[in-house]
From TrEMBL:
Keyword Zinc: no
Protein name: Glycerophosphoryl diester phosphodiesterase
A GO CC term attached to the entry: plasma membrane
A Pfam family matched in the record: DUF4996
InterPro entries documented for this protein: DUF4996, GP_PDE_dom, PLC-like_Pdiesterase_TIM-brl
One GO BP: phospholipid metabolic process
SUPFAM superfamilies with a match to the protein in the record: PLC-like phosphodiesterases (SSF51695)
An MF annotation (GO) of this entry: glycerophosphodiester phosphodiesterase activity
PANTHER family reported in the protein's UniProt record: GLYCEROPHOSPHODIESTER PHOSPHODIESTERASE 1
Length: 343
């Protein structure tokens, strides 16, 4: 079993009683996931996994259409906690799930998503990027993807629109009775952006989990991190550690967002630290994870240098393109705790 990270040891000093599986909440698996997401200090010995673009890759290869029902099903079967879904609008304003602003890479159609009506988009079929294999799935609406995920897994909403579109996104979840099944987020880099986001959250109201995205090219002060956490009541903070072209090597300390002061803020506010280890196409390896990303973990055969490094620096949520490999590694380290099957 991997040794307890210093951050977990600090939590144990102030919260010695860790829940057993018998004390887990009743209900569907998604309610248990939400409980762990909402109580970071209680679950720092369990690392949660988020499937990027719903879980489209395995061993560096595209295996399923991204943002598809097939990807969600695979992520559920692996035991992933959250799937990321990218949300855009059609020409007639419908909320659809699509990463790119254009259609050609991932569907049988071409052109901008926003230039097509929902009816037109529904005639487009999702395809596997690497092979070009066409699936039976049309471009999905946000509503149908939420319905497909209901009760089985939480949805991490990557809003490709503006923060002011978040109320419409949440309204879909509320109409389905799934407000507790999503996590919405927005980048916050200064006081103005914090105020703008807070105004949107006030319009949304309660019972929806919100997570700030903080990047180390703009946010370096632990006091600002604490202010954001408290004002938006965040259960987690998605942290971006930039790895620029020409950098001499991977980060050795995680940078400002993983300083001792920043990690202390997470403990005080009962907040998870979240890192993204997925690659960015045609950019340096681990670009948003300080050079310590999925590619390094898979190619080196030493995932400890990626996932182990971030866990030792306080991370308890990892968003990845390699959920199968990551969960297997975490289980071997004793960093996954089973969910109750009773309800």
């Amino acid at each position: 079993m991997r040794r307890l990270a210093p951050m977990l040891a600090a939590v144990l000093l102030v919260a010695p009683t860790i829940a057993t599986d018998a004390s887990m909440p009743a209900g569907g698996r998604s309610s248990q996931i939400r409980e762990r997401l909402s109580d970071a200090n209680r679950w720092r010995d369990h690392v949660m996994v988020v499937a990027h673009r719903a879980g489209w890759k395995e061993s560096g290869q595209t295996m399923r259409p991204e943002n598809s029902k097939a990807a969600i099903d695979n992520s559920v079967s692996l035991g992933v906690e959250l799937v990321e879904l990218d949300v855009r609008r059609s020409h007639d304003g419908a909320l659809v799930v699509m990463h790119d602003p254009t259609l050609e890479r991932t569907t049988t159609c071409v052109g901008a998503v926003s230039d097509h009506t929902l009816e037109e988009l529904r005639r487009c079929r999702l395809k596997v990027e690497a092979s070009g294999a066409v699936s039976a799935e049309p471009v999905p609406t946000f509503e149908e993807m939420l319905t497909h995920a209901r009760g089985r897994i939480l949805v991490n909403v990557d809003n490709k629109l503006e923060p002011e579109d978040l109320p419409d996104i949440v309204a879909v979840a509320r109409r389905l009775g799934m407000a507790d099944g999503i996590v919405v987020k927005a980048p916050i880099w200064n006081e103005e952006r914090l105020a703008r986001t807070k105004a949107v959250l006030d319009r949304i109201g309660g019972n929806v989990l919100f997570m700030p995205i903080l990047a180390d090219d703009a946010v370096r002060d632990a006091s600002f991190i604490e202010k954001v956490d408290r004002q938006v009541a965040a259960p987690a903070a998605e942290l971006v550690v930039w790895h620029k072209d020409g950098a001499p090597g991977p980060t050795t300390d995680g940078g400002a967002l993983f300083s001792a002061q920043a990690r202390a803020v997470a403990i005080r506010n009962n907040t998870h630290l979240w890192i993204n280890t997925y690659p960015i196409t045609n950019r340096p390896e681990g670009m948003v994870a300080g050079g310590r990303g999925d590619g390094l973990a898979m190619s080196s055969g030493r995932p400890d240098e990626v996932y182990g490094f971030w866990i030792d620096h306080g991370v308890t949520i990892i968003q990845t393109d390699e959920p199968k490999a990551l969960i297997g590694w975490l289980e071997r380290q004793g960093l996954r705790r089973p969910y109750s099957t009773g309800s």
